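Tokens as discussed.
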């Protein structure tokens, strides 16, 4: 299982310049889900291969990927194609690294170089891509930010505390 997590970390963090191009476009993963599923975290999304993934997995993937939202009509025809620019810049990540000194999860000691940028106010809920609304989180804690069974409490000083919610505590 540890090797699987390591492979996923590698895949999620490899630079787009290191992956092959097809038709002039860097490797792209297409995730389809409706707006309500994205916002609620309930339900499933579908990869372009037909593989189902959870809405929380789609949201976590979206944090470190260029996302181009496409609004479809009832016949699945594109009505509007949104913008891709939503990722923190390297300068914003550097500033967050100086401020956060690594993963913001309470008790975590992962350094900034091992962390991903996270929107404290989710992008899909109007969050801004800036230093003030950003935080660094290691891949494990970043997944908790987006997991529907975990809630986050922001502590004084900028640390985050996670708590398992609901009756099912598995």
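Sequence:
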């Amino acid at each position: 299982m540890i090797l699987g997590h390591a492979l996923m970390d590698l895949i999620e963090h490899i630079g787009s310049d290191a992956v092959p191009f097809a038709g002039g476009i860097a490797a792209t993963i297409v995730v389809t889900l409706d707006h309500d599923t994205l916002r609620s975290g309930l339900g499933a999304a579908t990869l372009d291969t037909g593989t189902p993934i959870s809405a929380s997995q789609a949201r976590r993937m979206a944090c470190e990927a260029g996302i181009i939202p496409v609004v479809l009509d009832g016949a699945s025809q594109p009505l509007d194609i949104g913008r891709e620019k939503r990722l923190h810049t390297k300068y914003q990540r550097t500033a967050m690294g100086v401020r956060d000194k690594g993963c913001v999860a309470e008790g975590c000691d992962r350094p900034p170089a091992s962390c991903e940028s996270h929107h404290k106010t989710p992008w899909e809920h109007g969050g801004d891509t800036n230093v003030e609304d950003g935080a660094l989180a290691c891949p494990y804690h970043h997944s908790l930010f987006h997991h529907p069974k975990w809630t986050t409490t922001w502590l004084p000083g900028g640390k985050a505390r996670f708590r398992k919610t609901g009756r099912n505590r598995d």
